[in-house]
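Practice problem: predict the structure.
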Amino acid sequence: MTYDVAIVGGSYAGMAAGLQLAQARRRVVVIDAGQPRNRFASRSRGFLTQDGKTPNDITASGYAELMQYDTVDWRKGEVKIITGQEGDFTLVLDGRQEVSECLYTRRVILAAGVVDKLPSLPGLTERWGAHVFHCPYCHGFDLNRGKIGVLAFSASAMHLALLLPDWGDTTLFLNDSFDPDMQQLKKLNERSTHIERGNIEKLVEHGVGVGVLMADGRIFPMDGLFIVAQTVPGPLAIRTGCELKETPLGKMVKTNAAKATSVPGVYACGDIVQPTGNISLAVSDGTLAGQAVHHSLVFGL
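Answer:
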C-alpha cells in the first residue's frame, strides 16, 4: 500500500499535520520514535485548553483524537533513510525489535529530529528540563517568582536577562563569556537584573532547586536557570538533502511559506524549522503543513 503522506514525528506538529490530512480523508502514516523534545519537562504552559498539564497527558489526548480516523496508521520506530522522489518515496525504518520495514508514500512531512546542543558545563545536562530551561513562556510561571538565574555562554544571554525579571528575582551569571557595555548595564539596572561576574565551575544539588557553584567557591541557590541553547537538525533531514538555514539559535531546515523544503515532495514543520520551541506554535506550524500538503496532492503544487 502507498500512503498519501508519511509524517516523521508523532509529537505536536506531526499530529496536528496528521489531523488536517485525516479530516481530508487521506491515507496517512505517522512514524514516531517516542522521544519528544519536551520529555524532561514536568508540565506545559501556554497551550490553550491544556495549560499546566503534563506533556504526556497532552500527547495522549492528541494521539487519541488522531487515531479516531480509520485512514491513519501509527508506526513505532525511527526512519533511517528516505529515498525516491515526489509521488514515490520509500521510507526505511527500524522498529523497537530492530526489524527493518519499508513504507511507501507520495509526500513526506518531517516533524521531528531537532537536537538540543547544550553547553559543556558539569551538572547541566542532567538538569535539562527539570531545573535548566530555554523558554520563559514555557517554564517561568512555575518558578513562582523565585530566584532565577541566566547562565551566559555568549552575549545572547542579554535577551533572557532582560525578559526574566517578570517571572522572578533574576541574576545574570556572566561566566566570563562577555562584558556588558554601559548601555547594556543601564538596561539590566532598569530591569533590576543582578550581575555576578566570574567563572561557573558546575551546577549542584541545592534543596528542591539548583546551586550555581562558582570557581571561587561561592554558591548561589536558584529555583531555576535559563540558557540560550543551540539546536541542530537530526541526521535524517541532512541525509534527505534538505537545505538548512542559520538562525541565532542554531541551524534549522529551510522551508517556504507552504512548509515545503528544498526537496520536492518533502515538507517540514515544528521545532525543526523554527527556533521557538513552543507547543502552540508547533501545532500551528503542523496545521499549516498538513493543509499545504493536501493542496499539493490536489493541485500538484
